[in-house]
Every structure is written in C-alpha cells, then in structure tokens.
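Q: Convert this sequence to structure tokens.
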Amino acid sequence: MGKMKFILIVLFALLLSPLHFYKIYAQTKIGGFLQLDKRFYISKNALPMEDFYNRFRFETSVSPNSKLYLFSSVDFRFYDLARANKLNDLENINQLFPTNVSLWEAYVSLYGFLFDDLDLKIGKQRISWGTADKLNQTDNLNSKDFSDLNNFAEKIPSWAVKASYYLSDYNLTVVWLPNFEPVLLPRNGTSLFLGDALTSFKDSLILPANRLSNSMFAFKISSNFAGWDYSFSYFNGYDDIPILTSLYYNSNPGKAELSFPKIQVIGADFSTEISGIGFWGEGALTIPNKIIAPILANGVYYQKVALDDKPYFKFTLGSDYTFPGGYYLNAQWMHGFFTERGNTLNDYFFVRLEKTLFNEQLKIAFGSALEVDKWGNVSENYGYGFFPELTYQGIDNLEMSIGTFLVGGKPASLLGSWKNAKQAYLRVKVSF
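A:
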C-alpha cells in the first residue's frame, strides 16, 4: 500500500507540474536589447584599442506574488576586431570572434519584508544615486565601466543587500556591499584614464582582502519639499580606481605597486523644475585615508604622499529646457572628473542641443565639451570635444545613429590625451 501511495503522489505531482510551470511562464517577462556598433578611428596616430564591441542584453523577470520579484539579465559583448597575433590564432574561433558573457544583474526583491513599509533587495544590482544626467558625483556604490570611451559614465552592477524604509514623506535606504569590485578599463586603453606614466613599469595590483571588515556600506535619506526633490547620503568603502602605492627604479623594468584607497563620501543632491526649466545638482565631499608611497630610485630611498587625507569636494550642476519649436537644450558643469582626486580637480562643461524632424522620425544632436585645467592660464590648459549625431527613430523600438566622437586639446588635459581616440560610428539598437 505504501508503494501505491507513493506512485499516486508522483502521478498527482506530474499532473500538477505543467499547470505550475504554465503559471510561472505566464508571469515571466522577457526583454532586453541588441546594440550593433561599427566604429572607425579617424586619427592618423590611432590608439591600439581593441574594445570596439557590440552588445546583446537578455533580461527576464518574474513576480510569483505581490511580495516577491525576481530579475536577471545576461550581457553579451562581441567584438569587431580579430585578435590574431600569430598563425595558430587563426585556428581559434575565440581569437577571431572574441565574445565576453557576464551575468549583469541577478536579484530578488521582497516587498513588505517584516514591516509593510520595508522593502529588501538582495543580489547583483545597479544602485543609481544622484540627480545629474550621467555625470553623477554621489553614485559610488557600483564600479565604473570605462570599457567604452563613448559611454564613460556607465556602471557595472554590484552584489549588494539594499533595504528601503518608507516613513511618511521620507525614504531611508541602507546598503551593504560585501565585496569590492574595481573599475573596468578599456583593453589597451588604460592610459586614457590613468595616464601613461607607468607604461614602462611592471605593475602589480593589490585588491582589498576579502574580509568582513573590508565590506562597504552606505545610506541615504531622501524626500521632497515644495517641488524640490533632495537627498543626503554617506558612503564608506573604497575608491574603485587604483593609485600608486610604491615604486622601484632599481630594476629594469622598474616595479610599480597599485592599490585602492579607503574613502568616505558625504553627498547631497537636488532636482526641481521652475517655469518649465529643469535644474539639478549634486555634490560629494570625499574624505580619503592618507597613502604614503615608498620609492626606491638609483639606490636612494624616500617616501612620497601619494594621496593626502585632506577632504576634497566634487560637484555637478545642470539644467535643461525645451524651447518653442522643439529645441531641447541640456547643459552641465562638472567640477572633478571621475578619475580626479585631491586638489587636482578640473572643470568640465557639457552642452547638448537636440531637434527632431519629420514628425519626430529624425533627431539631430550636437554635443560639445570644454575642459579647463587652470583658470589662470586657460590657453595652455584646456581640452575640447564635439559629438554630432543623427538618429532615425521612425520605427518603435528601433534607433539607428551615425555620429562622430571628436576630442582634442593640450596634452596635459584629459580630453587632449584622448585626441588619438577620435571615432566615427554607426549604431543600431533594437529593444524588445
């Protein structure tokens, strides 16, 4: 009889399982995008970068009930250029058609966890803080993705536990990040962001030890008053961009050691609209730990302050407005680029003008940038950029763009150091 009961239970489960899976399937949403990029250097002394890639993002989400939500996405990057340096490389499909696959996001959200006003999100997730248009100074929780020079404001989702508590007009967010994740740099293009001072050295990189004491945390409180959205935040963790911590000239090649500085960031932001004009701003006061780098050169040993413990302040201010006739203008002032620290903060001005034509089927955009390193001698310390783009958007879920990425300036400026990365591109993006 026991065996018969077991068989009946198994048969009953098999009969119900299709219904169960059908129910889950009906609740599952699938989406993502395919972005095809074809780029060409237009500089005679072009950099040997190999990170021109296309992208396919596949996303799935399911909500079994009102209290539970699951989301995951996989990111595929397939590159334009073959990486064949010797004859045997022609036998390897991964060398001829390089492809990277990564789990982009994977998290579970719990609504009304323990209390009705408490939500919990656990897993690999993008936590976006700040009100600026991409140039966010308080967005420190996810590591930077510099792999695409044309999209240097991209971030990579991080493993985190985020709790959000809603109290009347206030929202309190607490985040714990158990692991440190460093910046992603462009292949063969590290010098674009970190300079070329260490190219002749053999370097080693030291990551923070995987210990509970090295985990990172942050919190933010946000609210709204009289049409003004605002928030105050605090982050305690590590800068994801490495810094030189020791240098040895006595060997050939010399040896350089880099690590990631411990920092605290106190942030604030706001956004509002006045008479149809949008305004936003955010600032971040960074308090770094002092780093003293030992240097051994030609038998002489000395120490240098690689990073002082003096706080420094970065900010971004911006505004946008749509003029009569459909002209959209977006302008931002960024004091301190993502890679800059201490008292070496430069000023960057970004302006973008857009206009749609032919019943919004075509969009013409003119973007520009100006960098000023030293206001006392602007003519010798500046960088510039021009980013014209034409986009066809006459079909739902489709964007086709052609444009150029033109940069230059004095060699000491950031944009001036990018002069050999001038590009023309064709991009097709289909969302689903």
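Residues 88 and 95 are 10 Å apart (CA to CA).
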